[in-house]
Design brief:
16% strand; methyltransferase; transmembrane; transmembrane helix; Methyltransferase domain-containing protein
Length: 224
């Protein structure tokens, strides 16, 4: 009986060890830049490389289309890019401009910006992204395209999202330079994701893909 209980205890321990080991392996953090508890999952590697490039290239102006609505609580879902790159901007004397056409998203993001004490660094704008980008007069060191929600099953929405991201890039293209970094979210999805149309256009203009995964990270060939 004692041996039986011992074996049960060992089996339970090994089961727990396997369970938590598997969870640990799936946990993709940006520690030490962000607290270990935040799991960025499929965006971790592209975020990490982007943060490295931002520092190497001394980026000062960051433009994001599509705000992070739920703050850092959504790192596993939408990636919380506004707050990841906003934190980097705050620590490196840079500025981040985040534009979204959804009023509730802008309100929620603005509240969280204040909660994270990023209001002197991050500007959240309620506007159509194409109008905002077309009117933006400063040079852009990092462009993060993540607007027009994509749908896994609706091909009409997929095409509209893909066309929109191409139009966004073209609207701001004149403000980019050879050291600009471009990151496109939600690419590894059925139908090609948000980057399906804009990435080939960029490649024709001399941009090169550094990482092609759930997100696509690009820099200009002249900067390599």
């Amino acid at each position: 009986m004692d041996y039986f209980l011992m074996y049960l205890g060992i089996a339970a321990f090994l089961g727990l060890l396997t369970h938590y080991s598997f969870k640990f392996l799936k946990h993709k953090s940006l520690y030490p830049f962000m607290p270990f508890k935040y799991n960025f999952r499929r965006r971790r590697d592209t975020f990490a490389k982007t943060l490295q490039l931002l520092s190497e290239r001394n980026a000062k102006n960051i433009v994001e289309t599509g705000t992070s609505r739920n703050g850092l609580s959504a790192t596993r879902g939408d990636g919380a890019g506004t707050f990841v790159f906003g934190k980097w901007a705050m620590e490196n004397n840079a500025k981040l401009f985040s534009v979204d056409i959804n009023e509730s998203a802008v309100k929620e993001c603005s509240v969280e910006v204040k909660n994270q004490e990023l209001q002197d660094t991050v500007t959240v704008v309620l506007d159509d992204s194409l109008q905002f980008l077309d009117a933006f007069e400063e040079t852009v060191d990092f462009l993060y395209l993540d607007s027009y929600d994509y749908c896994r099953v609706d091909t009409d929405i997929q095409l509209k999202s893909q066309e929109h991201h191409l139009k966004e890039f073209m609207a701001i293209e004149s403000q980019l330079h050879k050291d600009t970094i471009v990151l496109i979210d939600d690419c590894g999805l059925p139908g090609g994701g948000k980057g399906k149309t804009v990435v080939p256009y960029m490649e024709q203009k001399g941009w090169e893909v550094l990482i092609d995964a759930y997100q696509i990270l690009l820099v200009h060939q002249e900067s390599l």
